[in-house]
Specification:
heterodimer, A: 6-stranded mixed β-sheet, 5-stranded antiparallel β-sheet, 54% strand, B: mainly beta
Chain lengths: 116, 115
């Protein structure tokens, strides 16, 4: 079945350092989504990328979708303690029988910790 | 606040027991999803309902079942509980529009501890 893999599993940085997490899918994706889960919290949607080669920015966060639409990355510039959490990528598995079935497969996430 | 309500927040029960987790989706969302989150497995998709009907299934155990009611709230039933079922169970909701599916909005989760 479809798999979504993320690396690294953990990343510890000093505040002010950059951080990148990578996501790879075993199949071509129609879109890739990124979610953030703070410690003790629930996943919260960050962004969705749809087009091949798409790059989107949210302040210090840069998201990229690969040309083949099978990989993606999230880069955080100059991390802050508020960036702490687990970052998940997720890709949809769509079946051919219509639009009402929708399985969003999540990677295992990258846990980011930031030392102040 | 995501608008998705899950109850209870915590549940502690013994092996062999049965529990029911409840979820109310965000207003206007017709689809409800259940995910299991454990430390080593990340977010595992269990099942999706759309407007009362089961639409997609993940690696959901036979001991687990779910349903979505006419008012769109959903329940996840876990029976013959085992220690390994201890996890955080999330409900999420979304809606399908012309442009495609909206992102998932997650509830705060139910932490299940099986002793």
């Amino acid at each position: 079945g479809q798999q979504v893999m993320q690396i690294p599993q953990y990343q510890h940085v000093q505040e002010g350092e950059d951080f990148t997490t990578y996501c790879n899918s075993s199949t071509t994706l129609s879109n890739i989504q990124w979610y953030k889960q703070r410690p003790g919290g629930h996943p919260v949607f960050l962004i969705q990328l749809v087009k091949s080669g798409e790059v989107k920015k949210q302040k210090r966060l840069t998201f990229q979708f690969g040309e083949a639409k099978k990989n993606s990355s999230l880069h955080i510039t100059a991390t802050q303690t508020t960036d702490v959490g687990t970052y998940f990528c997720a890709g949809p598995l769509l079946r051919g029988r219509g639009g009402s079935n929708y399985k969003l497969t999540f990677g295992k996430g990258t846990l980011l910790t930031v030392n102040p | 606040d995501s608008g998705v309500t899950q109850t209870p927040k915590h549940l502690i029960t013994a092996t062999g027991q049965r529990v029911t987790l409840r979820c109310s989706p965000r207003s206007g969302d017709l689809s409800v999803y259940w995910y299991q989150q454990s430390l080593d497995q990340g977010l595992q998709f269990l099942i999706q309902y759309y407007n009362g009907e089961e639409r997609a299934k993940g690696n959901i155990l036979e001991r687990f079942s779910a349903q979505q009611f006419p008012d769109l709230h959903s329940e996840l039933n876990l029976s013959s509980l085992e220690l390994g079922d201890s996890a955080l169970y999330f409900c999420a909701s979304s809606v399908y529009r012309e442009a495609g599916w909206s992102p998932l909005h997650f509830g705060n989760g139910t932490r299940l501890t099986v002793t």
